[in-house]
Amino acid sequence: MRLRNPLLCVAMLGVAGCNVGPRYVKPAALPPNATAPAVYKETPPEPGWKAADPADTQMRGKWWEVFGDPVLDGLEDKVDVSNQNLKAAVAQYDASREQVKILRSNLFPTVEVGPQVSRNRESQHHPLLPPGTTETTYSDYIVSGGFNYELDVWGAIRKEVAQAREQAQASAADLATLNLSMHATLATDYFALRGYDTQQQLLDETVIAYQKTLQLTLNRFHGGIASEEDVEQARTQLETTRGQAIDVGVARAQLEHAIAVLIGETASTFSIEPRVLVKAPPIIPPGLPSTLLERRPDVAAAERRTAAANEQIGIDRAAYFPTITLAANGGVESTALGVLFQGPSSLWSIGGSAIETVFDAGKRRATTAQARDQYDQQVAQYRQTSLVAFQQVEDNLAALRVLENEAVAYSDAETAAKRALELSLGRYKGGVTTYLEVLTAQAALLNSTRTSADVLTRRYTASVLLVQALGGGWDVKQLPK
Prior knowledge:
about 475 residues; elongated
C-alpha cells in the first residue's frame, strides 16, 4: 500500500508512522508461460524408480551417507570445519546479521553524556570584557547530555531494517548453496578418483594378461610356429597398455590433490588408498516437482533479494517527504565546582527540525524509477533461477536413465568380447588364424571393459549432481528468522 497524503502520515505518527512504497507480494517463481509439472518428464519408468512423497525424498543432513562409503563419509565431515571458502561465507553471513543490528539501532534515539573541565584566560582587551575587570582567568565545569532522534515517520528506517534482514537471509541461503556445492564437488571428485582406481586395476590386469600372451607368442616363435611380426605386435600392445596404465595415475593424483584442498589439508601430506567401484549407485528418488523450489537454497536467495529490492522502492519513495528530527540537550555549568549542581547552574535546550528537499532536478524521481527497474531485474533473475533448477533435475534424471541402459549394453558387449577373445586365442593356438585376430579381440575387450567402468563412474557423478539439483535435503524453513 502506498500512502500519498502527508497529513495522514502525521496523524498516524503517534501510533506507528507511515509506510511509503509498495507492500511486498512474493512474485510467481516461474514466468507466466511456464508452470511446475506434476511429474518430472525424465523420471525413469523402470520399477526401481518412483515419484515419492515429499517426506520420502527429503534427505536430511549428511546426504552423502546414502552412498554407503565410510571413506567418503569421513572426508565429507571435514568440509564444514576445514574448508576455507565455507569459512569465508560464514563470516560474510555473520557480517550481514550485524548489519541488521546496525540499521535497527537507527530506530532509537542517540543519547550522549559528557563532562567537560577547562581552565581559561580571556584577553584584557576582549571587546566584551566588563569595564574594571582585572581577573581574566577562570575555570569552567560542564556536565551535559543530549539526544537526537530521527522520527521514522515514513517508514524508511524500518524498510532499511527489513531490507538488511532479507539480505541476511539471502546470505544465509548463499551459504547453504556454497555448502551444498562444496560437498557435491567433493563427492564427484571422490567418485571420479574411484573411477580412475577402477581403470587402474583393469589396465594392470590387462597388462598381466598381455604379458602372458607375449610369452605365448615368444614360445611359438622359438618353436618356429609364429613369426617375428607376431612377437612385435604382442610387445607393442603390451607396452601401449602399460603406458595407459601409467597415464591414469596423473589424473588420479590431481583429483587427490583437489580433495585435499576441499577438506583444508595440504596436497603434500594427503592420500587416499585405492579402491574400485564394484556396484551401481543407489537410487535417488526425485520427489514431486511442486516441492523443488522450496528445497533449493539458490532459489530462496533469489527470492529474498527480490524482497530486498522491493524495500528499496519504499526507501527511495521516502525521500519525497521531510526528514523530521527531534533534539534535546541539558546539563549544568559553573565556574565553581561547589555550585555546579545547584539550580542556577542548569542549562537546557529542546527543539526539532523538518527538512524537505524542494528541488533536485528529478533526482528522486529517477532514483525511485531505478529502484523499480532493479526490482523487475531481480524478479527476472528469480524466475530464471527457478527454471534452471528444473533443468538441472531433468538433466541428471535423463543422464541416470540413459546411463543405466548404456551400462546394460556395455555389460553385454563385455561378455561377448570375452567370449570372442577366448575363441580367437583357441584358433590362434591351433594355427587356424593369424595373431591379428587375437589383437583385434583383445582391443575390443579392453575398450568395452574401460567403457563399462567409465559409465559406472558417470552414474555416480550423475547421482551426486541429482542430489545437488534437489537441494541436498535443504528446505526454505531453514532460513534464519
